[in-house]
């Protein structure tokens, strides 16, 4: 699956019914980290959680504010580089079962062979504008012996 360079966030949510409408709840951390803002309009791409429903050539389209498309960010580029090491906590699992963590500015890091709640040290292998792919280099949390 190709991931668009304009992807702002990636998380798992359930579509819920409420008085004749259907809603997807945005995790509080998305607002707290500044990844998303209240009262903004976003484009949303939905991907089935059933792995058999996902075409490997599928592209996740742009997810960005539509009200302020010309607004400049205070930063340029990803907050990590290839070869960087970071301690991360796996917050979600992607459709293929890979762990999803976040670093500065809500930047998404995808880490294979991890589970929700794992705290691991990873090394960035491939860095894109909106997402990095990393491998675990140490799975012993800091402070443990």
Automatic annotation (TrEMBL):
<feature type="domain" description="TRAM">
    <location>
        <begin position="79"/>
        <end position="138"/>
    </location>
</feature>
<dbReference type="Pfam" id="PF01938">
    <property type="entry name" value="TRAM"/>
</dbReference>
<protein>
    <submittedName>
        <fullName>Deoxyribonuclease</fullName>
    </submittedName>
</protein>
<dbReference type="InterPro" id="IPR012340">
    <property type="entry name" value="NA-bd_OB-fold"/>
</dbReference>
<feature type="region of interest" description="Disordered">
    <location>
        <begin position="53"/>
        <end position="85"/>
    </location>
</feature>
<dbReference type="InterPro" id="IPR002792">
    <property type="entry name" value="TRAM_dom"/>
</dbReference>
């Amino acid at each position: 699956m190709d991931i668009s360079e304009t992807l702002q966030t990636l998380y798992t949510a359930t579509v819920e019914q409420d008085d004749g409408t259907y809603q997807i709840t945005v995790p509080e951390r998305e607002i707290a980290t500044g990844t998303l803002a209240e009262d903004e309009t976003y484009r949303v791409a939905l991907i089935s959680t059933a792995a058999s429903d996902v075409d490997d050539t599928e592209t996740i389209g742009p997810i960005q504010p539509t009200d302020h498309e010309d607004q400049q960010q205070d930063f340029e580029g990803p907050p990590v580089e290839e070869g960087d090491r970071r301690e991360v906590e796996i917050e979600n699992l992607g459709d293929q079962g890979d762990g999803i963590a976040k670093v500065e500015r809500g930047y998404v890091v995808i880490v294979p062979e991890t589970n929700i709640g794992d705290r691991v040290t990873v090394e960035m292998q491939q860095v894109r504008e909106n997402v990095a792919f990393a491998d675990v280099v140490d799975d012993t949390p800091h402070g443990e012996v």
